[in-house]
Specification:
The structure is a single chain. The chain is built from 11 helices and 12 strands. The chain is of the alpha+beta class. Helix 1 runs antiparallel to helix 11 and helix 2 (57-65) crosses helix 8 (176-188). A 6-stranded antiparallel β-sheet has the order 2-1-12-11-10-9, sandwiched between helices.
């Protein structure tokens, strides 16, 4: 049971800034906003504020990619090289679309999370304004040697999902951002979800802050517009709509829902992983998570209980204490 008093206390202690929403069936159990969307002007977060969700986008990228293949077996046989041509030559010829979706490609990563460092480090290899479309990423995907042979192991790979964005765009002839909108957001009814530019955010969007205090934003830390591996903006209500549409088979057919939530790897600390989604070992719950400079996000959906629990914060570590509280309160 979620206590509003306890939630308020945890949020205050953790200096949480963002939105919490819990849905069970058609009932909104709790929806609360805390902190500021714009600290400099003291504009508060609202329950319908648009937030960046970092790697939460990977699930949407996966959902946009898989309709290109009618059956899973064809995806397992389709190689990245088919669409890459001579680009990114260090990606092995036997790396398939399924390998990329499952983080089992073994390719070198332009943004390697195993390299260590702080989440607030400046890690982009080129000026961030140069990264707004999949094709603009191709030069920075080059030159990273493979970690292991395709299919041999699991290694979380941001670059793999940027490659997927490149493949999806080239295979379909539709710009990646339009493809996600058409194949995922529109059938799910996600009306407040968009690929916003961080350097021209509209009034309803939350600015991402590096720390609990201060005015330093993440605008120089992340690509100016999300592509493949992270960066879309959404609301807690739209996240709920995404889960409902996904499990109902309104985004991809039911056989793909089963396939995408079938474990491919045990990622140890992260748990099992399917295709674009984290999974829970002990339940049927499916998870989307994002963590970056100025962004922390986790949404868990348990289809058996029709329960969705979403926490989005617009500072780097803001979400995690609230996530822990909800997991304990709801026995997730």
């Amino acid at each position: 049971m979620v206590s509003g008093h306890d939630l308020d206390a945890i949020a205050a202690e953790a200096r949480f800034s963002g939105v919490v929403r819990v849905d069970r069936g058609n009932e909104v159990v709790v929806t609360k906003a805390y902190g500021f969307a714009d600290r400099g002007h003291e504009i508060p977060n609202e329950v319908d504020t648009q937030f960046a969700i970092a790697s939460g986008l990977k699930g949407l990228t996966a959902l946009a990619v898989v309709p290109s293949w009618s059956v899973p077996s064809s995806m397992r046989l389709t190689t990245a090289r088919l669409f890459l041509g001579e680009d990114v030559p260090l990606i092995a010829d036997d790396v398939t679309v399924e390998h990329l979706l499952a983080h089992r490609s073994g390719i070198g990563d332009y943004l390697d999370e195993d390299a260590g460092g702080e989440i607030t480090d400046y890690v982009m290899p080129v000026p961030v304004h140069q990264l707004a479309t999949p094709e603009e990423y191709v030069p920075i995907l080059e030159g990273h040697p493979a970690k292991f042979a395709a299919g041999e192991s699991f290694s979380y790979c941001n670059g793999g999902f940027v490659v997927l964005a490149v493949l999806a765009e080239r295979a379909s002839g539709i710009p990646y951002h339009d493809l996600v909108t058409q194949r995922v957001c529109e059938p799910a009814g996600m009306r407040d979800t968009a690929f916003l530019r961080s350097d021209e955010l509209p009034g309803r969007a939350a600015i991402g802050y590096l720390c609990a205090d201060g005015l330093r934003t993440n605008v120089l830390h992340l690509p100016v517009r999300g592509v493949g591996d992270g960066g879309i903006y959404t609301t807690a209500a739209d996240v709920r709509a995404l889960w409902a549409a996904f499990v109902d088979g309104r985004i991809v057919p039911s056989h793909w829902v089963t396939e995408m939530t079938r474990p491919r790897s045990d990622a140890r600390d992260g748990g099992p992983y399917g295709l674009g989604f984290w999974l829970r070992a002990s339940t049927a719950a499916v998870v989307l998570e994002g963590y970056d400079a100025g962004v922390s996000f986790r949404s868990l959906h348990d289809p058996g209980a029709d329960l969705t629990c979403t926490v989005i914060s617009n500072w780097s570590d803001g979400a995690w204490p609230v996530v822990t509280y909800l997991q304990e309160a709801l026995e997730l």
